[in-house]
TrEMBL record:
One biological process term in Gene Ontology: P450-containing electron transport chain
Protein name per Swiss-Prot or TrEMBL: (2Fe-2S)-binding protein
Listed GO MF terms: 2 iron, 2 sulfur cluster binding; electron transfer activity; metal ion binding
Highest taxon, organism lineage: Bacteria
Transmembrane helix as UniProt keyword: no
The keyword Iron is assigned to this record: yes
Entry GO CC: cytosol
UniProt xrefs under PROSITE patterns: 2FE2S_FER_2, ADX
Residue ranges annotated for the 2Fe-2S ferredoxin-type domain, each copy included: 2-105
InterPro entries in UniProt: 2Fe-2S_ferredoxin-like_sf, 2Fe-2S_ferredoxin-type, Adrenodoxin-like, Adrenodoxin_Fe-S_BS, Beta-grasp_dom_sf
Cofactor(s) the protein needs: [2Fe-2S] cluster
Family of this protein: Belongs to the adrenodoxin/putidaredoxin family.
Amino acid sequence: MTQISFIAFDGTKFDVEAENGSTVMENAIRNDVPGIEAECGGACACATCHVYVDEAWMPAVGEPEAMEEDMLDFAYDVRPNSRLSCQIRVRDELNGLVVRVPERQG
C-alpha cells in the first residue's frame, strides 16, 4: 500500500492508504476527500478531479500527457504543478505523495 496525503482547501489533511495500480482520484473518492468531484469517473473527460501536486513530488509524478493538458484548460486556477488526479497511477515510488485540492473544481 502507498500512502497519499490530500490537503483540502481549508487545510484539513486526509491520509489514505492506496492500492498500487489504482488512481489518486479513486482513492480520494473512496475516502470522501472533499473537493474531488470526479464527474466523469476517471475518463479524463472533465477537470473535476484537479489537484496541485506538492512541488517535491513533481519529478516522481511526471508531466501530464497531451489529453490531460487539454482537459486542464477547463480547470480552475491552473498552476505549473496542476494535474488531474484520475491520471496519476499509484505506485511504490509515490509513497508519501502530497496533493492539495483547489478552492473549487472547473
